[in-house]
Amino acid sequence: MQARAVAKGQRMKTSIATVSLSGNLSQKLEAIAGAGFDGIEIFEQDFLASDFTPGDVGQMVRDAGLEITLFQPFRDFESLPEPYRSRAFARAARKFELMNQLGTDLVLVCSTTHPAALGGIDRMARDFHDLGDLAKRHGVRVGFEALCWGRFVNDHRDAWEVVRRANHPNVGLILDSFHTLARRIDPDSIRAIPGDRIFFVQLADAPAIDMDLLYWSRHFRNMPGEGDLDVTGFMRAVTATGYAGPLSLEIFNDQFRSGLPRLVAQDGHRSLIAVMDRVRRVEPALPADLPAFAPPAPVAGVEFLEFATSAEEAPGLEALLRSCGFEKTGNHVSKPVGLWRQGGVNVLVNTDASGFANSSYLVHGTGVSEIALMLPDARAAFERASALLAQPHAQAAGEGELSIPAIRGVGGSVLRFLDATSDLGRIWDIDFRTSPAGAGAGLTRVDHIGQTMPYDEMLSWSLFYTSIFDAHKSPVVDVVDPDGLVRSQAVQSGGLRVTLNGASARGTLAGRFIEDSFGSSVQHIAFASADIFATAAAMASRDFPVLQIGANYYHDVEARFGLPPALVERMRLANILYDEDAGGQFFQFYSAPRPDGFFFEIVQRQGNYQGYGAPNAPFRIAAQKRAARPAGMPKR
Ligand SMILES: O=C(O)c1ccc(O)c(O)c1
Ligand SMILES: [Mg+2]
Fold first, then answer.
1. DSSP secondary structure string, 599-635?
2. What's the rounded Cα separation, in Å, for the pair 297 and 281?
3. DSSP secondary structure of 480-518
4. Which of 35-49, 61-75, 179-193, 301-315 has the lowest mean pLDDT?
5. What does the entry list as the binding residues for a divalent metal cation (predicted)?
6. Whose CA is nearest to atom 1 of ligand 1?
7. Confidence class of residue 10 from pLDDT cuts 50, 70 and 90?
8. Which ligand places an atom closest to the C-alpha of 42?
9. Residue with CA closest to ligand 1 atom 9
């Protein structure tokens, strides 16, 4: 609720095209209004397919607290010979009447792809001048957009020249980041256009894929920040012109068309706030139409991970922790929460039969319910997250205990913010009674956290992390499971590394985990060791249920990397896998999966290795599936 107030209070006017969401018109309006947008673009087809009169639609939009910022598209207008030209004007007159009934004054004309069109910049300008006269008589305005596959106009600079020559107050330019950036047109060329001649701005990002422009545009667009286009550079240029109209998302995306409209709309609004925040930070001289909130900060590290479980299931989890070298070194002052420690790693085991942990346990079973991050300034980070529409999480703290700022994260789990500069840095003294930990098995910190989710949620959660924190994404990697593909997106912010694993096939290890744990959650935690062979030996002596890796793997890895046979033999004995990149070397081993598919991983990074051992994932997954299957059972 608080987040909503911040979003509504800003001056930047936000809008989204109805094509960006699934559902019927009423469902879309509800989702768009609920996410805090000011307006919508009505895509003509959405209107034509509905049973409402134009007057009804206008009323529905206004009743939802929204305005119609744009009606679109009007196609194949300019540079036609007769009789097409007259027909195009007659068609335009009809649409202008419709716009009056809808209650909107701006229409988007996209550059022609008509086979009979003649082209010619002055012919196009004349047509637009005449259309401007017609528009004026109807009290509406016309904006010209260059489709990047337009026959004669496919560049905003040419569209601007047409508009400039049309020289009519009712005719202006419409910019769409996709069309400009997809053709790699320098967005700074926009800075030369007067802001008051830009009637409307559409924003969309897209992943860098080499394909036909039209197909790419109609199926793969995504929210600013979710793709690889320089939407920030585009918006900096737009802002520099003095443009003060709506920022409108126009996202043609197959996945969004079937997603939950409420979530897609919320991601859209978050992406607009994030992109304008980036604009003001990269180019502070530009006017900022956003309320002030803290800049994104890098995460220093993971301070604790909390498992929600029950008194019955806790011993199994604690045995696994003990086998990793953890020791129970403390208890919460008022709740049944145990602290398990080793090196810089803190794991909490919560068996509370009430409150959030219990709800999490009841929904997901034993699993990670909370992740606490160490930040430069926890309250500033919380304020920023709230401004970016994160859902705050509050649970009353006991007398004298810390009230730790928290938001909801993946799968409804909780993300807590701590810092070293306030009382929050003394959490172990204030909220816990602790005793010193022993030597452990050499685990030093959390290296990364693997969160598994349906493929459809991946973009959403990567936007969540990259907009709230100072974070960057690695390219998505495909992980081959024998029963389907899992895509993995790594996001890193300072000392926090998260891998978002998106499963669409239910038979994959990740897909089964989602089913077994009823939704997205942490499927694995990787701990770092400075000497993985010593750690493996220490854990083996504590009966760690190591994942057995087959001999075939070691023959291959020796040949592939030219590793010394003695090293490979040590790896084989300890079930350690290997990878390397330009920066350095990487060693890793795993636990067998728990019955629900959860597992631990131990890693050692050498030099500047930046990956996660993705080339080993198929072997790891096959081994985990073997380990999870009772001996003698045929595969599924
Ligand atoms: O794909 C299209 O045809 C289309 C139509 C209208 C737009 O504003 C646009 O960017 C693309
Ligand atoms: Mg467009």
1. EEEEEEEEET--S--GGGHHHHHHHHHHHHSPTTPPP
2. 13
3. EETTEEEEEEEEEETTEEEEEEEE--TTSHHHHHHHHTT
4. 35-49
5. 145, 176, 202, 250
6. 218
7. very low
8. 1
9. 147
Ligand 1 neighbourhood includes 87 CB (under 6 angstroms): no
- As beta bridge partners, residue 489 has 500
Counting from 1 in the atom list of ligand 1, the atom nearest the Cα of 43 is 6
The ligand 1 atom nearest the CA atom of 72: 6
Percent of the chain whose predicted confidence (pLDDT) is above 70: 97
Ligand 2 centroid from CA 200, angstroms: 10
Q: Residue 396 is which amino acid? A: A
pTM strictly above 0.90: yes
For each of the domains in the chain, give its residue range(s) and CATH number, in order of start: 2-282 (3.20.20.150), 301-434 (3.10.180.10), 443-628 (3.10.180.10)
- Known binding residues for a divalent metal cation: 145, 176, 202, 250
Q: How many residues does this entry show for the chain?
A: 636
Q: In this predicted complex, what is the ipTM? A: 0.99
pLDDT tens digit string along 200-223? Answer: 999 999 999 999 999 999 999 999
Q: Determine the distance separating the centroid of ligand 2 and the alpha carbon of 307, expressed in angstroms.
A: 46
**What DSSP letter does each residue of 241-304 carry, written as one string?**
TT--S-EEE---BTTGGGS-HHHHHHHHHHHHHHHHHHHHHH-TTS---S---PPP----EEEE
Whether pLDDT at 4 is above 50: no
73 Cβ below 6 A of ligand 1:
yes
